[in-house]
From TrEMBL:
Taxonomic lineage: Bacteria, Pseudomonadati, Pseudomonadota, Alphaproteobacteria, Hyphomicrobiales
Region listing for Disordered, in residue ranges: 154-186, 223-273
Positions with biased composition (Basic residues): 155-175
Listed name of the protein: Uncharacterized protein
Gene Ontology annotations of biological process type: regulation of DNA-templated transcription
Protein source organism: Pseudaminobacter salicylatoxidans
Length: 273
């Protein structure tokens, strides 16, 4: 890569990594964006943020001191997010002191994993409607089982896919299913207006049933094993198939003209002698 191309590529990536405040051609400020390369999504932290969303949705920015307020602190502590619960309570439950938070933290330390989604939903009484309104992912619903939620999620996905495909087809000037069925011949039945049968109407349009020709092979005799048996060689080793075929039509008695005939050439030898 040439130096000019390398400098242009460096300027391109530098512009993407920085934010600038520009007026005309004058750059007033430039600040680099800090990116964490070691960041990974955490379900525990997501659980804690969703509990905070439930508190804000129900009570606002501060959790009131009620009889069931410690359940929110318990759910937050059981999220196992490594969050300091004393600092967390200073923001969301400033009335909760060490005597309330301490025992809950000790119980959370005995757990190796965070509480299940349906367990948190039962603890905080999260309904399916509230779960959908807040778009909760790590908390279940107390009024709907997990299997029913999965089936509902699949049905919603199919509805979204169907709506997306319908929107895609409408952009290509295609008819929807209702319009197609309303304008089809089976719905309008034009043969009744013409006073003919349905079959005649389709035949006149050239859309009758196509002709199907079926060809079958005639019966032929099955060869037997005796007729097509392999030839048996003679004792002298000569092939006698030709002689046997030539004499096959003579029967048991040869013609009279050949009875007593000597081999060819025997009479000539005696006359010469």
């Amino acid at each position: 890569m040439s130096k000019t191309a390398s400098d242009a590529l460096e300027r391109h990536y530098r512009a993407r990594r920085t934010r600038k405040i520009v007026i005309g051609r004058c750059v007033l400020a430039e600040m680099s964006e800090r990116r964490r390369s070691d960041w990974k999504p955490s379900l525990e932290l997501m659980r804690l943020r969703e509990i905070e969303a439930i508190i804000f949705h129900r009570h606002g920015s501060i959790l009131p001191e009620t009889d069931d307020a410690d359940l929110y602190i318990e759910a937050a502590a059981f999220a196992q997010s490594d969050q300091n619960m004393i600092d967390w309570c200073r923001k969301w439950a400033p009335w909760a002191g060490e005597e309330i938070v301490g025992p809950i933290v000790e119980q959370a330390k005995k757990r190796s994993r965070m509480m299940r989604a349906d367990g948190v939903a039962g603890l905080l009484r999260v309904t399916m409607k509230e779960r959908d309104d807040l778009d909760l992912k790590t908390i279940g619903a107390c009024d709907m089982a997990k299997g029913d939620r999965l089936a509902l999620a699949k049905e919603r996905k199919r509805a979204r896919d169907r709506k997306r495909m319908q929107k895609k087809r409408s952009g290509k000037s295609r008819k929807d299913r209702q319009t197609y069925e309303a304008e089809s011949a089976e719905t309008l039945k034009p043969w009744e207006a013409e006073g003919i049968s349905r079959r005649t109407w389709y035949r006149r349009r050239g859309t009758s049933v196509s002709r199907v020709d079926i060809y079958t092979i005639g019966d032929i005799p099955v060869p037997t094993a005796e007729k097509y048996a392999p030839p048996v060689p003679s004792a002298s080793g000569q092939n006698t198939d030709g002689a046997a075929d030539r004499c096959a039509g003579l029967g048991d008695h040869p013609p009279a003209g050949r009875q007593g005939a000597e081999p060819h050439g025997s009479g000539d030898n005696e006359a010469a002698a």
